[in-house]
Amino acid sequence: MLKSMTGYGTANVESDTLSVTVEIKTLNSKFLDIYCRTPRQYSEREIEIRNRLTQHLERGKVEFSLSVQPKGQVAGTTVVNRALVSAYYQDLNLTSKDLGFDANPTELLSLALQMPNAYQTAVADESSRDQEWELIQQAVTQAIEKCDNFRQQEGQLTANKLMDYIEAIRTLLAKVAEQDVHRIPAVRERLEKQVNELVTADNFDPNRFEQELIYYIEKYDISEEKVRLTNHLDYFTETLKSAESNGKKLNFISQEIGREINTIGSKANDATVQRLVVQMKDELEKIKEQTLNIV
Question: Least enclosed by CB within 10 Å: which of 183, 193, 199, 254?
Fold first, then answer.
């Protein structure tokens, strides 16, 4: 199934002593780019978190945020990291002054207390830490699933758009084929007129003219391009519906579609066909833009 690189997922899992919140945001990117925001006491688990994100999200810019808050009696063992909060407060205060306004001290303190590692919790024993990590894993799994579902929904909407654009190009190609029936005779008539204006009837060589005419007709012939373009459109549609569909492959096929459209435009030598080619290029640009946001 087609997946968009744009996604969002959040999950909250609680126990008697802990509340864990995980938030995942994904945007389009050429490669997988993961940014993790985790409390300091769980920094040794970041590699494991990154591996799970890599395994399930595959591609895109990923922003991962983990928040762990103690509850009940455990919360009483949590104290404010005053030195760090003070540094946050001073930095926020200086930032507000640089921006030309005086911020409310209460609001600044509230923001500082929400920053990473603003609280310090008493060191738990190994058993408690394992239980905490199990709770965190549950939240991470749920958030990844929700983000993946979001991506699938967005991917289906993108797939529908791509099908519309492909069908629009196919319709325009059919109009090119209709016009092509009238184009070659018009080219022949135009060449005959031009040749007759350049030569006199006495030295006109019909055989030489036929040879030149064959050359120009072959030069203007777009039959092969129409067949190849149809094949590329069919291949794009098949790939879009297949389980192996991905943004890179669709983008490669769209490049091949563009080559055939450009060749038709350069060989057509017909105003009507040229207008149709411009419309096909417009639809193709929409396709390329959409494929950039596909996993």
Answer: 193
